[in-house]
Amino acid sequence: MPSLSKICSSFCFLSLLPRSRSRAPNPQAMAALRRFSSPAILPLRRFAASCPFSATAGDDQAVMTVETSVPFTGHRIDTPSRSVETTPKELLSFFREMSLMRRMEIAADSLYKAKLIRGFCHLYDGQEAVAVGMEAAITKKDAIITAYRDHCIFLGRGGKLIEAFSELMGRRAGCSKGKGGSMHFYRREAEFYGGHGIVGAQIPLGCGIALGQKYSKEETVTFTMYGDGAANQGQLFEALNMSALWDLPVILVCENNHYGMGTAEWRAAKSPAYYKRGDYVPGLKVDGMDALAVKQACKFAKEHVLKNGPMILEMDTYRYHGHSMSDPGSSYRTRDEISGIRQERDPIERIRKLILSHEISTANELKDIEKEVRKEVDAAIAQAKECPMPDSSELFANIYVKGLGVKDQAP
Ligand SMILES: Cc1ncc(C[n+]2csc(CCOP(=O)(O)OP(=O)(O)O)c2C)c(N)n1
Ligand SMILES: [Mg+2]
Question: Which of 16, 141, 147, 225 is least enclosed, having the fewest CB within 10 Å?
Answer without folding.
Answer: 16
